[in-house]
Specification:
By secondary structure, the protein is α/β, with parallel strands linked by helices. It has one domain (about 1-300): TIM Barrel (Alpha-Beta Barrel), CATH 3.20.20.150. The chain is built from ten helices and ten strands. The strands form two sheets. An eight-stranded parallel barrel has the order 1-2-3-4-5-6-7-10, surrounded by four helices. It has a two-stranded antiparallel sheet with strand order 8-9. The longest helix has 22 residues, at about 120-145. The N and C termini lie close together (about 10 Å).
């Protein structure tokens, strides 16, 4: 496996500053954020470290080669199944630009969300999946690019309730979606932390979906049991949990990485930082990446 980080935590830095930081600190890769330029729609979103509408292929490739850093994936996490058709079409159009950029840069992987109409049931959303996603996946296939869907429910804030904004959240749903879209170019960006707070086994799916895991996130989460006992599982999750740096939460990293080695996963493993304890300054955010790397280095050469 090759260790990297997601660039969202370095919002405000340029592409060059992100890659320089990765190079100076011994990271093999970076998952580069590619949101449309403009105002962020939510925390850790709206970050643009690669402008897929104006890709200077030679410059980016040469800069990466000079710094000995690779792009693990181009990432853009919107809601393609949004109930607002105009928004959905906008998200899909930009997602296709990400796919095109991935092809141009020979990255050949785009990480995203499948999306969800939060006001409809799982069954109702599944009926929309083929119509919306089959053309996107076919577009990716024609480019020779893979798509990896992260298993984050996007159900943290009041405006994401009641159903959340990403359907791809459980093994049961994984199976149904992969039946609808069996393409080998369509898989997972697997993050164990989201299974932890849903009180689900995050090891078994590694084995079941080993052929679908294209990319993995290293993010931890801490469940505050006293808060959970007070508000219950029906509360907004941030009332009883907090994202943490790897090693500071409830994920058993030895067991998880052991499972990844069991299935022969040798792809990119990317630290995703969303720990509130490290948000007060750019220095703190940079420190959070280094602290995460120091902890995870026991599993990497």
């Amino acid at each position: 496996m090759k260790l990297g980080f997601n660039s969202a935590i370095l919002d405000g830095c340029t592409f060059e500053e992100v890659i320089d930081f990765a190079s100076e600190n011994g990271f093999a890769c970076v998952e580069l954020c590619a949101w449309p330029r403009g105002k962020a729609v939510r925390k850790y979103a709206g970050v643009t470290h690669i402008d897929v509408e104006h890709v200077d292929v030679d410059y980016i490739r040469n800069y990466l080669e000079a710094k000995n850093v690779k792009i693990s994936a181009i990432c853009y996490y919107p809601n393609p199944l949004d109930g607002d058709k105009e928004k959905s079409e906008y998200y899909i159009a930009h997602l296709k630009k990400c796919l095109e950029a991935a092809k141009q840069l020979n990255v050949n992987l785009v990480n995203t969300f499948i999306g969800r109409n939060q006001h409809l049931s799982v069954a109702e959303n599944l009926k929309m999946v083929s119509a919306v996603w089959q053309p996107i996946v076919e577009y990716a296939e024609n480019l020779g690019v893979k798509i990896a869907i992260e298993n984050c429910p996007m159900l943290f804030t009041n405006d994401e309730w009641p159903g959340g904004q990403n359907l791809m959240t459980t093994p049961a749903i994984f199976r149904k979606v992969f039946e609808l879209i069996p393409s080998k170019n369509f898989g997972l960006n697997f993050d164990p932390s989201h299974f932890v707070w849903q009180q689900m086994d995050y090891i078994k799916p590694v084995y079941e979906f080993k052929d679908r895991i294209f990319h993995v996130h290293f993010k931890d989460v801490k469940i505050y049991k006293d808060r959970l006992h007070d508000v219950g599982v029906m509360a907004a999750p941030l009332e009883y949990l907090s994202p943490k740096l790897p090693g500071l939460g409830d994920v058993n990293w030895g067991t998880y990485i052991s499972a990844l080695t069991d299935i022969g996963y040798t792809g990119n493993a990317v630290i995703e930082v969303e720990d509130k304890a490290f948000e007060d300054s750019l220095k703190s955010r940079k420190d959070s990446i280094i602290i995460s790397k120091n902890y995870l280095s026991q599993y990497f050469v």
